[in-house]
Design a protein that fits this description.
Layout: H1 13-24, H2 28-40, H3 45-65, H4 71-90, E1 99-106, H5 113-124, E2 127-136, H6 138-148, E3 152-156, H7 163-176, E4 180-183, E5 201-203, H8 206-213, H9 237-244, H10 246-260, H11 269-292, H12 295-311, H13 316-327, H14 334-345
Helix pairs in contact: 1-3, 2-4, 3-4, 3-5, 4-5, 5-8, 6-7, 9-11, 10-11, 10-13, 11-12, 11-14, 12-14, 13-14
Pfam families: B12-binding (PF02310), B12-binding_2 (PF02607)
Organism: Actinoplanes campanulatus
GO molecular function: cobalamin binding; metal ion binding; methionine synthase activity
Length: about 350
């Protein structure tokens, strides 16, 4: 009789805490050594990618949102995890090729680490992956498809403000006959916006994407296949007005800020620059919500922003004032006004 196989070691909390401490200290050598130890102990590469590197990246984002970490520290930690991920890839072999897939972040989407992890998961499952990286302009993506003829395209969108560009990319990919699988939080809960924008499939995680591609997907002969869920109302007049008027909306809001919120009179240069950036985000998320016709895109962002600002000592009245300054410039646009009103109701 042969002895039963030992279960693979698990990545428990002490290991996860140790790895977080290493990336927090920008200890690239230590992080690489740790993932090497786990590999040597028999921990599957998929688990290292998902349960250690991926889970830590989510934790890093939470620490930034809570104002416990700076943007610089967050970026440094991500850079360490990128090297650790490369180490995992270097120590693993892949199965027989299943096909070729192009993987890219949509134009303007700079959160490339989730897509990079997916690229390694797909390689482990036997795919040849052309990973194009963050923020790929649509025309360059399509040129690559014509040059390489992949079996599928995987598009990552982590922030809803990139949905209009995601829609353009998906439409262009469909025109070439290459099926599209979408992924990332930007496509909404359960990927609800992915089908509306024309994607053939959606996956909520790297594991789900691998499983989806391992079944009866990707489809073949997709040229002319109708986009499920599209209704012809994407990017209407209100959206167009908001996008074209963005610079003036922000400038006017800043001109009126001190009168509406006297505390802003004492703002430093850095605080003024942050306020301009925050108002720009408000306009961008409002535009995305108008484009897709989904109020929750905007209201959920405002609730999240309220928490982020509160962790930085900014009172809710400041955010409410910013919303009101945008609201008062859009009185002729009922959908935008309704979204702004709904967001203000949800503020504390």
């Amino acid at each position: 009789m042969t002895a039963p196989a030992r279960p693979a070691p698990r990545i428990d909390s002490p290991i996860a805490d140790r790895y977080l401490a290493l990336v927090a200290d920008s200890d690239e050598v230590g992080a690489i050594e740790l993932v090497g130890e786990l590999h040597a102990q028999g921990v599957p590469a998929e688990r290292i990618i998902l349960d250690l590197i991926g889970a830590t990246q989510r934790r890093v984002g939470e620490l930034w949102a809570a104002n416990e970490w700076s943007v610089a520290r967050e970026h440094a930690a991500t850079a360490v995890s990128e090297r650790a991920l490369a180490t995992v890839a270097a120590h693993t072999t892949t199965r027989a090729p299943k096909g070729r897939i192009t993987l890219a972040c949509v134009d303007g989407e700079w959160h490339g680490m989730p897509a990079r992890m997916l690229a390694e998961l797909l390689r482990l499952d036997g795919w040849r992956v052309d990973f194009l990286g963050a923020s790929i302009p649509g025309r360059h993506l399509i040129t690559h498809l014509h040059q390489t003829g992949p079996d599928a395209v995987a598009l990552s969108c982590m922030i809803p403000t990139r949905l209009p560009r995601a829609h353009a990319a998906i439409t262009a990919c469909r025109a070439t006959g290459v099926p599209v699988i979408a992924g990332g939080r930007g496509f909404g809960p359960g990927g609800r916006y992915a089908a509306r924008l024309g994607a053939h499939a959606w996956a909520g995680s790297g594991e789900a994407a691998v499983a989806r591609l391992a079944t009866d997907w990707p489809p073949r002969n997709v040229i002319g296949l109708p986009a499920v869920g599209t209704d012809g109302h994407l990017g209407d007049e209100e959206y167009t007005h908001l996008v074209h008027g963005r610079p003036n909306l922000i400038a006017t809001a800043m001109e009126r800020l001190v009168a509406a919120y006297p505390a802003a009179h004492e703002y430093s240069t850095d605080q003024n620059e942050s306020t301009v950036e925050d108002i720009g985000h408000i306009v961008d998320f409002l535009a995305a919500a108008l484009y897709v016709g989904e109020q929750e895109i905007f209201t959920d962002f405002i609730v999240w922003t309220s928490g982020v600002l509160a962790s930085r000592g900014v009172p809710p009245v400041a955010l409410r004032t910013g919303l009101r300054l945008i609201h008062d410039q859009l009185t002729d646009f009922p959908a935008a006004v309704a979204m702004l009103d709904a967001a203000m109701v949800r503020l504390p």
